[in-house]
Amino acid sequence: MSRVAVFPGSFDPMTMAHLDVARRAAALFDRLIIGVLHNPKKAPLFSVEERVAMIQAAVDEFGQNVEVSGFDGLTVEFAERNGAGFIVRGLRAVSDFEAELQMAHTNRRLERSVDTVFLMTALEFGYLSSTLAKEVAQFGGDVAGMVPAPVAEALAARFPSSRSGT
Ligand code: PNS
Question: Out of 3, 42, 105, 163, which one is annotated catalytic?
């Protein structure tokens, strides 16, 4: 039986913590679809198309079983459309747990056949967030090692004068 999982998120932008979870999930499942949520409630730095392209470049080395796509609406419906029985989420610290527990229960309530699988983010990336990476880049800090190379390039292009402090 083929095990298919979705890894949904905002990924605005993808960090090394996300990439670490994606890499390990790709090894656990036969097929992994990374889903970039189009969230009308948020004003993202990068468009869904830009985020999908950056993630595609970052996961290129993972192999054929990883796909990236944008999605609207409910995560469980995105999972069903892709024939996925699992939702992958990363946990960085205990502080993530409460919201993730709520989401996992909501998703299970909506669709009993879809289970959430949590992977603990690697210790060295446990402090990272997309918000933090954007702030560092915006004020001219070095984001190398915090985000995948294609994301670092996109952030540098988005905040071109930030290194000179202007
Ligand atoms: O990267 P994020 O912002 O922590 O990801 C949150 C995400 C996209 C997984 C969550 O907001 C989500 O699943 N949104 C889709 C709408 C949905 O299914 N809501 C009900 C379950 S929480």
Answer: 42
Task: Give, using CA atoms, the residue closest to atom 5 of ligand 1.
Answer: 9
List all residues 6 or more positions away from 31 whose beta carbon is below 8 Å from its beta carbon: 2, 3, 4, 5, 65, 66, 67, 84
Out of 36, 45, 74, 118, mutate this one to test ligand 1's pocket (max ligand atoms within 8 Å of CB): namely 74
Catalytic hit among 2, 3, 10, 18: 18
Q: 27-53: string of b/e by CB count within 10 Å (b at 16+)?
A: eebebbbbbbbbeeeeebbbebebbbe
Instruction: List average pLDDT for each run of 10 residues in the chain, which is 166 residues long.
Output: 96 98 97 96 94 97 94 98 98 95 98 98 96 97 97 96 50
From ligand 1's centre to the CA of 140, what distance in Å?
Answer: 30
Is pTM beyond 0.85? Reply is yes
Tell me what pLDDT residue 158 has: 96
Ligand 1: distance of its center to the CA of 113 in Å? 18
